[in-house]
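Purpose: get a first structural picture of the assembly so the mutagenesis plan has something to point at.
Setup: two entries, given in the order below. No constraints added.
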Amino acid sequence: MTNKIIPQRDAFWDKILEKARADKNVIVISADMGAPSLDVIRKELPSQFINVGIAEQNAIIIGAGLALTGKKVFVYAIAPFITIRCLEQIRVECGIMNIPMTIVGVGVGFGYEDSGPTHHLLEDIAMMRCLPNMTIHTMTDSNMSSSFGEIAYESNSPNYIRVYRQTLPDIYDKNHDFRKGLSVLKKSKDYYIVSCGSMTHTAIEVSEKLAKNKINIGVIDAYTIPINQKLFLDTIKGVKKIITMEENFLPGGLGSTICEILSDNEISIPVKRLGLPLEKAYCYEYGGRDIIRAFYGLDNNNMERKIKEFIKK
Amino acid sequence: MIITEKLIAKLEKKSDELRKVILETCIKAKTGHVTSSVSCIDILIALFHGGIMNFDSENPQWKGRDRFILSKAQASPALYTVLADVGYFDKKELEKFAQKDGKFGVHLQMSVPGAEITAGSLGHGFGIATGLALSAKLNRELNMTFALLGDGECYEGVIWETAMFASHHNLNNLVAIIDRNFLCVTDFTENLIAEEPMKDKWESFGWRVLRIDGHSFKEILESMKDIRSRKSNKPLVIIADTVKGSGIDSICYQPLWHAIAPQGQEAEKARNCLERRRNND
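Result (structure tokens, whole complex):
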């Protein structure tokens, strides 16, 4: 018998439902987005569920007011709209005022694949990570999602939870400690891929393929930004090269974060960033995530080839 | 609250006194929104000195306090002046407004006792105030929330998202006061994009609407005298007709007199205007 995988979105809201039942200060604000556990909160705990309608900016500022009085606020909407559309509200309320609230965006990267570029979210890591006080969490699997619910509930500062729309298979066990901010999924003394979320699954696949060619590449799942620098630097100590993989435009994304850490710590390790080049701009290809990734040169074969070339240099 | 002639006379005296403090604060700093501040100063005086708001300046975080949110945060000189006047902090701090070693600048800063939030970008404070009012409802707390909005601020689309939200949730513990001075930065509102009929707009968004003279203490106090015992479920918006630069005739009701502190001869003229106002000339 195989265990049914719970979608990351549902694993997260299941945890928040559990918290909401125990703590009436938990308030979920939805910009007209649903989920099975949210339906339960809405019916069972109506005073703790607020649907603001399709009004993301208002969701953030109403949430800020509630959070100022000690409410544990979770604001939920389609990812590009609850981040970029209301970035200035997030900047003032979270970045400047440091009001502890959790922003939950569903459909990061190419989550809304066939909906086109308005629904793709390819800039959020860059935009959100330059805000002081903000912690970004990218879900890689459902055990992690549940844990992020716990971490966000206990947090006294703003959090942004990046949720994939598609269900990603579980790779962690239930008791894994996600408070460290990153996990080494596969060790290597020479090379590492650093990735998060959906790309971590791709990184595992690519590293397994390369292992057949006797290239041992480790995988670091960097699910929390700001990155745990000490743990990261300890992990990559002495390696020859680092590859970063992300479903974000390259400027300011995960790869940039890694380069900044190395630069700031005066560590000379060549880095190859695999992500979305700005030159390719936005994508109007349809037919699923693989086709869209191929448009940007991020299909598995292409990435495998680029990594091999980078390692040989 | 009993509205007596004595109370009104006291507030009118404050009105002269604090206008002068605002003007001198900004002249010294060579910055600050003088005209925006004196536009709403009488409303603030009525709230803090007229017995409308419950607060404890010695305990700014007192849980039972009414919340005052200055959404049009460019009027911070007005709020800082009133907060100092009611004892939240030493009045001498105003002399360092927007200067080296000062504790606050041109816009609103939440670290200042009584300021509640950091603001400056328009449209935020009203939503935060609405969240505060909703929280009080959820917690069955009796405190009120007051938000002061600029009429120029009402161009921000999010104001109307919040307005719809507040009436839907029957937040009758929320009072929005609009400083309706008919001026934005470069021109009169009705020349930019007409905001009238403002009363109809707010009514259609589900609010109880009053329109008053925002420089008449009698009308301001009357508009809020039953604020804790209203029978309506609707939030209340008070459109307060005001004059941008009120009391300082040399700079009042003029486009482009925004975010400027008069200097040199302009400062002298402004001082003389206030002196004439005080002497009822």
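The two ends of chain A are 47 Å apart (CA to CA).
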